[in-house]
């Protein structure tokens, strides 16, 4: 008898993979609709982190637009959005100085007044409590590692909770084959570059006719600073130094809560120079005279990293397929110029829930929820993304200075003329992996040594992410061809995995004579950012789920 047949199964109306803003909002909306209709709908939500929020990392300045719709009395219910934005600053940095860009020159939607600085991880923890009160079954520490199919080829469910397989593949004493969770519909809400979403997009050709998805890597630290330096409600963003004009990215810094400063750096992953290290650019950035004073005298208390979807409207894949839908960052609804996506993720979860509820009430299951796609196109999410659709392509084609100027002009036009753009809709030309240049065409970058006060090394940073994995399990970072890192990536690109990974997972080791290079994967360090799956120029690294509960355990991120 095969392993698949030995698994127990549980039946639900809807199975949701991922306990982020999209998945939780979908679960809550389903239960709200059932309560209003006086019926029952069974909902199971699985989350690979050790708890809901453990793997959630975002800036975050949160637009409460979707939350206002989902839970109008969220303030009374104690949602952890305690610090409203009171001051917006946008700076252009040079090596030593700054130029403040006037906020009045930016379209109204770029302003953050009415938004809140918060920990998105804590917001999802609160949303999970609301969902459980409504009867949603939430299973943290359960990784959805495989999919289950109906005979007609539609998605029937997912396999969760496979544990106890050793590195060499044998079954340990604690082996569990996992369980199948079956749903009339399955919502994929894994976040950026989810392993199931990636397979589904390929299987059903959901990206046909779309631009390739684009990404950034966001690296973040949480600091606690002296009270006399704290400016609650300050939201400061920068662009420029330390990146050159051909490398997109910028910083965020938010003062909130208990003398907290949330500070981070985003590097667009279409960068060309293979010698670039996003982590080290961030550490260098913190030493700038406009930044360092905010942190001096404070203590770094948390660290993490996560990829961000940046393709925008033209990169959104088809959202429905037989048996399921893509919601939130599994599809990519981030508004790059606003540096926000959680409100859009929540709304898409709600839209999918509304259409699934109606379909289930009508006796349907396992078909494509095309109504969700139509609802998205009519929603304020689509309208918001259409307005900013050319900002990212212009940066990619023209560089930061010129691309930023043309992008601002285009956003004003689309804002004032109801979505009309003189550029039409620009496309993204190629994937971020294909954007990587050859090592011989660029000078290696020599980064300053960390001072251990403001700037730090990767390993001490990973320690603050509380990352842990069961050591005796198959590596979840898989190489399609083990020879490629040394035979191809090292001579052609300098093996950039050792540089773009923000957690020291990938190393090239040499013998005492400096010869015989060997590629080493320290999977234990992985913070699940997915950058390697995106940026590897040979597309040889495949990120898969480790045992449930593995990975970072982010507090207040």
TrEMBL record:
Pfam families: ETFQO_UQ-bd, Fer4_ETF_QO, Pyr_redox_2. It comes from Caulobacter zeae. Its EC number is 1.5.5.1. It is an enzyme of class 1 (oxidoreductase). One of its GO terms (molecular function) is metal ion binding. It comes from the Bacteria. Residues 517-546 form the 4Fe-4S ferredoxin-type domain. This is Electron transfer flavoprotein-ubiquinone oxidoreductase. PANTHER family: ELECTRON TRANSFER FLAVOPROTEIN-UBIQUINONE OXIDOREDUCTASE (PTHR10617), ELECTRON TRANSFER FLAVOPROTEIN-UBIQUINONE OXIDOREDUCTASE, MITOCHONDRIAL (PTHR10617:SF107).
């Amino acid at each position: 008898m095969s392993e698949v047949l030995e698994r127990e199964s549980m039946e639900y109306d809807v199975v949701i993979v991922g306990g982020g803003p999209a998945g939780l909002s979908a679960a809550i909306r389903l239960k709200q609709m059932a309560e209003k209709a006086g019926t029952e709908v069974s909902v199971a939500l699985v989350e690979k982190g050790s708890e809901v929020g453990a793997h959630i990392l975002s800036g975050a300045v949160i637009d409460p637009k979707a939350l206002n719709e989902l839970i109008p009395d969220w303030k009374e219910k104690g949602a952890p959005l305690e610090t409203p934005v009171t001051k917006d600053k946008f700076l252009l940095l040079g090596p030593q100085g700054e130029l403040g860009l006037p906020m009045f020159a930016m379209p109204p939607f770029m302003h953050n007044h009415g938004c809140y600085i918060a920990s998105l991880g804590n917001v999802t923890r609160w949303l999970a409590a609301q969902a459980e009160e409504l009867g949603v079954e939430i299973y943290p520490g359960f990784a959805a590692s495989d999919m289950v199919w109906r005979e007609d080829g539609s998605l029937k469910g997912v396999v969760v909770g496979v544990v106890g397989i050793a590195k060499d593949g044998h079954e340990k004493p604690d082996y569990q084959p996992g369980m199948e969770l079956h749903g009339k519909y399955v919502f994929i809400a894994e976040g950026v570059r989810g392993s199931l979403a990636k397979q589904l997009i390929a299987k059903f050709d959901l990206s046909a006719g779309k631009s390739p998805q684009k990404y950034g890597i966001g690296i973040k630290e949480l600091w606690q600073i002296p009270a006399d330096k704290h400016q609650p409600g300050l939201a400061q963003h920068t662009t420029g130094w330390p990146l050159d004009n051909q490398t997109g990215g910028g910083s965020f810094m938010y003062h909130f809560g208990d003398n907290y400063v949330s500070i981070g750096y985003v590097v667009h992953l279409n960068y060309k120079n293979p010698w670039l290290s996003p982590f080290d650019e961030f550490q260098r950035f913190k030493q700038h005279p406009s930044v360092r004073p905010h942190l001096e005298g404070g203590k770094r208390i948390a660290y993490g990293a996560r990829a961000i979807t940046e393709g925008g409207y033209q990169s959104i894949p088809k959202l429905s397929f037989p048996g399921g839908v893509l919601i939130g960052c599994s599809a990519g609804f981030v508004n790059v110029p606003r540096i926000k996506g959680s409100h859009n993720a929540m709304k898409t979860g709600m839209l999918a829930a509304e259409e699934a509820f109606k379909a289930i009430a009508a006796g349907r299951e396992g078909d494509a929820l095309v109504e969700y796609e139509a609802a998205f196109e009519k929603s304020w999410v689509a309208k918001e993304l259409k307005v900013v659709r050319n900002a990212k392509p212009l940066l990619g084609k023209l560089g930061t200075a010129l691309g930023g100027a043309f992008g601002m002009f285009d956003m004003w036009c689309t804002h004032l003329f109801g979505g009309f753009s003189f550029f039409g809709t620009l496309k993204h030309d190629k994937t971020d992996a294909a954007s990587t240049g050859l090592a011989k065409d660029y000078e290696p970058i020599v980064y300053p040594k960390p001072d251990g006060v403001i700037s730090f090394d990767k390993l001490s940073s990973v320690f603050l992410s509380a990352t842990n994995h069961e050591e005796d399990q198959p590596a979840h970072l898989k190489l399609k061809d083990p020879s490629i890192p040394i035979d191809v990536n090292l001579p052609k690109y300098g093996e950039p995995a050792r540089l773009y990974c923000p957690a020291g997972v990938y190393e090239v080791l040499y013998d005492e004579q400096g010869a015989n290079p060997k590629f080493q994967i320290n999977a234990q360090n992985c913070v699940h950012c997915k950058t390697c799956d995106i940026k590897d120029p040979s597309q040889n690294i495949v990120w898969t789920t480790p045992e449930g509960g593995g990975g970072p355990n982010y507090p207040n991120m």
